[in-house]
Amino acid sequence: SSHLISSLAVLGATLMITACQPSNDSNNKKIPTIGFSVCCEQGLVTTVDEYVNAVEYVANQRGVTLNKQIANEGHSEQDPAMQFNQIKEMIDKGARAVIVVFVSDKNAAEHRAKILEYAEQHNVAIIAGRRAIPKNMLIKFKNTYAIGVSPEILGMQQGKMVADEWKKHPEWDLNEDKKMSFAMLKGPETAEQALLRVKNAINTIRANPQISSELTVNENSGWKREDAKAVVAKWISAGEIDKVEAIVANSDELALGAVDALREANRPLLPIFGMNTSSAGLEAITNNELIGSVLPDAATMGSLSYQVAENLASKQHIDAMLPANYQFRGSKEINVKPIIVTKENISQYK
Fold first, then answer.
1. pTM (2 decimals)?
2. What is the predicted pLDDT for the residue at 100?
3. Angle at which helices 279-286 and 252-264 pack, to 10 degrees?
4. CB–CB of 126/116 below 8 Å?
């Protein structure tokens, strides 16, 4: 997408300058093999696609071919055992660093530990990208690094956006009780990261000293747009929607499902907030269907992940060529700050 390329162009500039300089023979050595293991094929998760595109974009600029494997190609489910076997094969064939978007299924933890263990034994660096990885794993495995955004920070940014926008719009307070009555569309109850986003969004809204709020309706649904539409349609028919002045959703798809349900019932749209800024979400913000969304900034994560993988594979300092505001500084993870996208700044991300 174009917002991906424009932000890459800016961040890439820092990384590319060095790549374009003529180098003497001693640092003109061929970069060792870098593996790239992705949880799922293109089209399943938008923000994973953007991350993958960003990693590949920077690798192409550097003339490096990544050994890329997808952990559910030809299967309907992401497969943690397949991911372990693919990464083991990459390492056995000489990869010196592997960038990994881990399968996020709740049964994936033991395979994730096996992957980190195998890489550790073979002195290969693992760069966990895009999705958060448990802190205890980073402490346990010295060759494991993480570049992403924590679900807690994503949730906090969403809560901040909701509170800030509510303050600007006194007319949204339909019953004029000086309190925001909001509903939460949570996503599946098995999705651990999603639940952390929800919890932090709700806590951030509640803790905001400048607005008073109450959570009036709160429900899980599947991740699809139709799933959220069915839940909100149920709220409408049960009369629960009449207590609601804003809807906060755990993904843009869920937010758009809420838009569909209100439209179909011929009801005015409430202020609706998304998460994980998809291209459909961006369009909906432009069309005044969504108020805003939170962009995890996959472009920055992807280009940083590639650079760190190259540094570690070729035994350079881990922070070599990273922008000053995104360096490891002693820890083993870089948290990339997500971006709040609303009508005011949307032109930068389309």
1. 0.76
2. 96
3. 50
4. yes
